[in-house]
Amino acid sequence: MSKKKAEGTNLLYQLISEARAYDDVIVMGRGDPDFDTPAHIVAAAKNAMVNHHSDYTPPEGLLALREAIAERVKRVNNINVDPATEVVVTNGGQEALFLMVLAVLAPGDEMIVPEPNYNTYADSLAFAGGVKVEVQTYAEDDFRADPADVRAAISDRSRALLLVSPNNPAASVISPGDMKEMLGIAIEKDLMILADDIYDLFVYDDFEHLSPASLPGGKERTLTLNALSKAYSMTGWRLGWVVGPADLMARVRELKAAISGGASVISQHAGIAALTGPQDAVEMMAEAYRRRRRLVLDALDAMGIKYGLPQGGQFVFADISFTGMDSGDVAQRILTEQHVLAYPGSAFSKDRKDYLRMTFLQPEAQLIEGLERMKVAMRDIMAER
Ligand SMILES: Cc1ncc(COP(=O)(O)O)c(C=O)c1O
What we know:
By secondary structure, the chain is of the alpha/beta class. It has 2 domains: 8-30 and 281-383, Aspartate Aminotransferase, domain 1 (Alpha-Beta Complex); 39-276, Aspartate Aminotransferase, domain 2 (3-Layer(aba) Sandwich), CATH 3.40.640.10. The chain is 43% helix and 15% strand. The chain contains 12 helices and 13 strands. The strands form 3 sheets. Strands 2-8-7-6-5-3-4 form a 7-stranded mixed beta sheet, with helices on both faces. Strands 9-10-13-12 form a 4-stranded antiparallel beta sheet. α4 (92-104) crosses α8 and α11 (327-338) packs across α12. It is globular. Bound molecules: pyridoxal-5'-phosphate. Pyridoxal-5'-phosphate is lined by residues 31, 92-94, 97, 118, 164, 168, 196, 198, 227, 229, 235, 240.
């Protein structure tokens, strides 16, 4: 029986599994920061274990953590929420996005999704029976989602608009002007907004991130997710949240209770330390990403590879159309021949077979080595053409 070619999220897991087999692999694919979780956060988790904080928590999470989240979204995003009724702690951003989609979309409802986008939105939408309506964005516009295109995509089945800013994988940031326009359209057409702020602390140059829920008329129609995964280098701790208006959050809480109950109590204690403790490690990591982004962009420029300028996030979405090959095949060759893991654009969108997503979540020396190896792989591919 011939092996079926993996696609989407399954293709990514297949590549990750192969990468594990190589001792000298350089991982520029998966969004796992290389930094250790800051020590005071680890200490808080140890303390929770030693002091027998082992009981179930409420499905919505510990009140002290919800208060810390409410304080954080006020301080960073200018979103006002009541920790008692408008915050639900989740098992990472992944569960948060699933809960948001399930809370808002009924079978047959349409969600407008600027593409390319984080692949599991399509997965969760499929489980909810919702319909994805794509709005395309382009590298030459640095993957800007044009509000006029969003308006044109609206039908009488439209229920929600997904705004991931900074975006994964395209690394675009929705400008404040465009964000206000997007909200205006949502208000006029009575759409819900699902806002994914997971990369909000990583914005480059003079670009600016604005949360739609912070704008007048925004909060009542917006569910906003975030997580500790990226900002605190805590991907495996599985801690995130959804915030939004109390009526919708009651539904999110109900779903959370039914699906998994409260998040790990140990991780929740760690989360309180992360949000209320010193933030210097977050700034140190953000500064490192700024330097690494420059390094990767300079290397791509030297190779003559085009990309949309990463305005935020932790990725570069690079155009490899010059190879004439499907990005899945290019990613496979780079991995098998050079032991460098980069993600194929086709895993994020069927229309992005010409792109590779590269992360800059490795130390600079590793990134330089990874880019050198990639250059060799590209040269070999081109020599065969
Ligand atoms: C845009 C976006 N949203 C949500 C998630 C899921 O976050 P987590 O790793 O906390 O589950 C990710 C993970 O990469 C992401 O890129």
